[in-house]
């Protein structure tokens, strides 16, 4: 599954992942391969990126996620560098 995370300033992540968890407005949710198409708003929080056994966390400041045809695109308003 392909994941792209971008902000108005720069691309943050672009690569293959096994799953990703995003901070949806109605609660966090995980996207796995062959997930149904969805568009959701995002709150400030953690995007958890899993590639096999590795896990990375990026703290975003709001945004939108689109999932379609095993492609996940996160359009974040910004990245919390804390």
* CATH architecture assignment: Sandwich
Q: What is the beta-strand fraction?
A: over 45%
CATH class: Mainly Beta
Intertermini distance:
28 Å
DSSP helical segment count:
0
Shape: globular
At the third CATH level, what is the topology name?
A: ATP Synthase, domain 1
Describe the structure.
The protein has 82 residues and is mainly beta. The chain has one domain: ATP Synthase, domain 1. A 5-stranded mixed β-sheet has the order 2-1-9-8-5, with no helix packed on it. Strands 4-3-6-7 form a 4-stranded antiparallel β-sheet, with no helix packed on it. A hairpin with a 2-residue loop joins strand 3 and strand 4. It starts with a strand and ends in a 6-residue tail after the last strand. The model has no long low-confidence stretch (mean pLDDT 96). It is found in: Endomembrane system. It comes from Parapedobacter composti.
Write a short abstract of this structure.
This protein is mostly beta strands and about 80 residues long.
Keywords:
single chain; 82 residues; mainly beta; ATP Synthase, domain 1; 5-stranded mixed sheet; 4-stranded antiparallel sheet; 9 strands
List the helices and strands and how they pair.
Blueprint: E1 2-6, E2 11-16, E3 19-24, E4 27-32, E5 38-42, E6 45-51, E7 54-60, E8 63-68, E9 71-76
Parallel strand pairs: 1-9
Antiparallel strand pairs: 1-2, 3-4, 3-6, 5-8, 6-7, 8-9
């Amino acid at each position: 599954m392909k994941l792209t995370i971008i902000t108005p300033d720069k691309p943050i992540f672009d690569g293959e992942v096994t799953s990703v968890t995003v901070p949806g407005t109605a609660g966090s949710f995980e996207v796995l391969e062959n997930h149904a198409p969805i568009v959701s708003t995002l709150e400030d929080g953690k995007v958890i990126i899993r590639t096999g056994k590795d896990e990375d966390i990026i703290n975003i400041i709001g945004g939108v996620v689109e999932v379609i045809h095993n492609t996940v695109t996160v359009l974040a308003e910004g990245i919390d560098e804390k």
